[in-house]
Each structure stands twice: as C-alpha cells, then as structure tokens.
C-alpha cells in the first residue's frame, strides 16, 4: 500500500479514509490469557488506566448486547462504556463504545499472541472527538498531579 | 500543541467529502495534473478544480514545481500535523498495552 496520510511506525496506523485507528502488538501470553485480561473486571481494573491507578469501578456483562463500563479514578464522570456486539472467546471481541466500534482480535503465535485493536469511527468529526476525549481522560490525571505539585499544596496521602 | 484547532477544523471539513478523499488517495501515489485527476471521476474539470481549491486551502495539497503543467501533490507538512495531532492518543494506548504486558507477565510468573 502506498504511504497513507497519517500512517506512522509499525504497531500503529491511522487509516484516515476508513477513519480507523489500529494498534498491533505481540504478547508473551496465550490468547486465552489476553481474552481473560479483556473480559474479567478484576484484571481490567489493574491495567486499563494509562495512569497506572486501578479502576474505580469495572462492570462487565459479557454477552452479545451486554453492557460494560470502566471508570478511571481521575474522571469518574467519563466512563469508557459500551455494548458487546460480537464475542468469540479467546479470539475476538467487538463492541460499540462512545459512538465508535472497537475490535480486539487475538491470534495465536509461537509462544504468544498477536493482538490487533481497532477503533473505527463513523465520521471525521467523531474521530476528532474520540481522540480529543481520549487524550483528555488519559492525560489530565497526570496534569492534575503536576499542578498540585507546582502549587506546593499538601498532596493528600493516598 | 502547535496546530490551531481552526486549521484542524478546515482539514477535517476538507476530508469529509469522498471525492476529495479519493483525490488525496490518488496523490499519495505521486503528483498529478488536473486533467489526470479528472479521469477516474464522472465530473467536469471545473468541479475537480473546486475540490482541489478546498484541499489547497486546507493545506493538504500544494502546487508542484512544473509551472506549466501545474501538477498538484500532497503537502508533507500538513500530513505530519495530522500525525502529530494523534500522537498523545497513541501514547496513551501504548502505555495501556505496556500495563497489560506487565500484568500478564506478573500472572505468568505466579503460575510458573
């Protein structure tokens, strides 16, 4: 394929005509372990928040049409919430979340798993919104800490 | 971030049209003149020229060096801006997957 506008290094691609953001990564764990990490609240709680803090709440109704909701500590008002559209244990999860379609594909490789995560938006405006909201939720916790630190305010012990 | 949101708005508006996206896909293969760009479309040259003007104003394309043929080509800087715009989002998801990687490694260690 010729260089698509926006395409960057391996492991990540922005397919602009398809309004799809794609991540690919290899893990030294089995597809079953990856699937469990994506579908068991106790596991998602540990790894989902990029800030490293455990989730405040994580609810999962693992069936087609079932809802899920991940709530990060820094932004309890903006849960990552959606509904499962397709569930193939240890292979594939498709869900609607925040107006976009999310796909998690797990492929067994030698001693591990190749994971593809795709986020497909329905319009350019939505793609822009999705990215901005994601950045907002993902970074402002860090910004809050920095502001507290710079203010010299007593940071409450956690 | 360095890009103003009004510029991004214009970029997104320019990209919202399927013909303009098709023109960009064609230009991703290399520069092309207006008459070359008209060929695959059931449109007249003035229609394509109007689309080119929108893309030019959004900074997505620019004129090539040959003044007589007036070829158009992708604007590399503008394309880089689009990539920069998504960079913080990419980093958050990569961090998330780093967490996942560590989490799975911890589980595997416990099991062995």
How is this fold's topology laid out?
The complex is a heterodimer of chains A (158) and B (112).
Chain A: E1 12-15, E2 20-27, H1 31-39, H2 41-47, E3 57-60, E4 67-71, E5 80-88, E6 92-97, E7 100-109, E8 112-120, H3 124-151
Antiparallel strand pairs in A: 1-2, 2-8, 3-4, 4-5, 5-6, 6-7, 7-8
Chain B: H1 5-15, H2 18-27, H3 34-38, H4 45-57, E1 61-63, E2 72-74, H5 76-111
Antiparallel strand pairs in B: 1-2
Protein model, in words:
The complex is a heterodimer of chains A (158) and B (112). Helices cover 28% and strands 35% of the residues of chain A. Chain A is an alpha+beta fold. Chain A has a single domain (12-151), classed as 2-Layer Sandwich (Alpha-D-Glucose-1,6-Bisphosphate, Chain A, domain 4). An eight-stranded antiparallel beta sheet of chain A has the order 1-2-8-7-6-5-4-3. The termini of chain A are far apart. The relative contact order of chain A is 0.16. With 112 residues, chain B is mainly alpha-helical. Chain B has one domain: Arc Repressor Mutant, subunit A (Orthogonal Bundle). Chain B has helices at 5-15, 18-27, 34-38, 45-57, 76-111, and strands spanning 61-63, 72-74. Chain B has a two-stranded antiparallel sheet with strand order 1-2. The interface between A and B is large, with 38 and 33 residues.
Termini of chain B, distance in Å? 46 Å
Oligomer: heterodimer
Largest sheet of chain A: 8 strands, antiparallel
**Helix share bin of chain A:** 25-40%
CATH superfamily of chain B: Winged helix-like DNA-binding domain superfamily/Winged helix DNA-binding domain
**Order of SSEs of chain A:** EEHHEEEEEEH
Overall number of domains of chain A: 1
Number of helical regions of chain A: 3
| Domain module tally of chain B | 1
Radius of gyration of chain A: 17 Å
What's the mean pLDDT score of chain B? 82
Helix proportion range of chain B:
55-70%
Identify the overall geometry of chain A.
globular
Keywords:
heterodimer; A: 158 residues; alpha+beta; Alpha-D-Glucose-1,6-Bisphosphate, Chain A, domain 4; 3 helices; 8 strands; 28% helix; globular; B: 112 residues; mainly alpha; Arc Repressor Mutant, subunit A; two-stranded antiparallel sheet; 5 helices; 2 strands; 5% strand
